[in-house]
Design brief:
The complex is a heterodimer of chains A (about 120) and B (about 220).
Chain A: H1 2-42, H2 46-59, H3 73-89, H4 93-106, H5 110-124
Chain B: H1 2-12, E1 18-19, E2 30-33, H2 45-59, E3 63-66, H3 72-79, H4 86-89, E4 98-108, E5 111-121, E6 124-139, E7 145-160, E8 163-173, E9 175-185, E10 190-201, H5 204-223
Parallel strand pairs in B: 2-3, 2-4
Antiparallel strand pairs in B: 1-10, 4-9, 5-8, 6-7, 9-10
The chains are: A mainly alpha (about 120), B alpha+beta (about 220).
Chain lengths: ~120, ~220
């Protein structure tokens, strides 16, 4: 029984270390995907840019579709901001409204909150 | 709940156009458009906005007359409501008594910045404690085995050195267009309607189009 508990503790330590490394990798992935999306926007390839943004969104969610951590809310808000603008230019109004609502919910700065409000009012009127 | 609160906030703090009360907007059939000055050093920005204004007003079913220069009366009326003389009122306004003036408050194309980021890893140390229970077998006087465990504990400290990692992040700033628009009664300089609006987009063309559409949309309801 004692041996089992020792093995369990060792496994727990290893799991914690692994999670910390995985979390860092996820943040790296998000930044890389946002960068790729911006490059696609520069090339005016908005569908491709949107596909990178959609990938960046999934990196931040686990299998239960709940947030991995609350520390990167500002990044999430920026992802939704880009998603909203891309959906607007692609003519997907309803999806854009949903993206801007999410942006408003996660926005940390007054400027981004205001931008989300302006877009929501514009799209809903 | 969060969405409902956001919705209430959204519509309680929205900018609204200002309208001269008791004016019959339905009698406006033709509007004269005067040149919009360029925003700071953004050459051609005024012209871009003007073409968009013409497009949206024509879509509303309004007749448009474009003028190359802004008459003195209109210039004064847009600055101040006071001090308009009878002589100025007598200035003949061709085609229509109604004029639309626009001022750009913002005109910015999208920007991309490459920001160098340095990540400092302070390092870490991990202490692993391993406990092993060694079975010790002894025989009693009658020859039976007696088993008891002796615990041995080993402690290992692993230190991971810190490091500095440098990488680049691409920051994106959207295109943004802002404007103030006024509808004037050119015969007496009265401001009949005014609105201010701004919009952002990943494309400057889209930002211009949506900003002008958003600014003029309330006017469409009045002109019906």
């Amino acid at each position: 029984m004692k041996r089992f508990s020792n093995i369990f503790v060792s496994l727990l330590v290893a799991l914690c270390l692994n999670t910390a490394i995985a979390s860092e990798t996820k943040n790296e992935d998000v930044n890389s995907l946002i960068n790729k999306s911006i490059i696609a926007i520069q090339d005016k390839d908005y569908e491709k840019a949107l596909s990178f943004i959609n990938q960046a969104k999934t990196v931040n969610y686990n299998n239960n579709n709940s947030r991995v951590s609350k520390t990167d809310d500002s990044t999430i808000a920026e992802i939704y901001q880009m998603e909203g603008q891309l959906l607007e230019i692609l003519g997907k109004k309803d999806e854009a409204i949903s993206a801007w609502y999410n942006c408003l919910n996660y926005a940390k700065t007054d400027a981004l909150k205001r931008e989300a409000e302006v877009h929501l009012k514009h799209l809903r009127d | 709940m969060k969405k409902i609160l956001a919705f209430i906030f959204l519509f309680s703090c929205a900018d609204k156009p200002v309208v001269k009360p008791d004016f019959d907007f339905s009698r406006i059939e033709t509007i004269v458009i005067y040149p919009t000055p360029d925003f700071r050093s953004f050459s051609g920005s005024g012209s871009i906005i003007n073409k968009s204004i013409v497009y949206h007003l024509m879509n509303m079913g309004i007749n448009i007359v474009e003028r190359e220069t802004t008459p003195a009366l209109i210039k004064e009326a847009s600055l101040s409501q006071t001090g308009i003389t009878q002589a100025e009122i007598d200035v003949k306004m061709t085609s229509s008594d109604f004029a639309l003036l626009c001022t750009l408050t913002e005109f910015k194309d999208h920007q991309v910045f490459v920001v160098p980021i340095t990540i400092r890893d302070r390092g870490s140390s991990v202490t692993t404690v391993e406990t092993i229970d060694e079975p010790i077998i002894t025989k009693d006087q009658s020859g039976n085995d007696n088993v008891h465990y002796e615990t041995t504990t080993t402690e290992t400290i692993t230190t991971i050195k810190g490091s500095l990692t440098e990488r680049e992040s691409i920051e994106y700033v959207s295109s943004r267009v802002g404007m103030t628009v006024q509808l004037l009664n050119a015969s007496n300089g009265d401001v009949l309607w005014t609105n201010t609006y701004w919009y952002s987009s990943i494309s400057l063309t889209n930002a211009v189009n949506e900003c002008v559409y958003g600014a003029l949309r309330p006017l469409k309801k009045l002109l019906k």
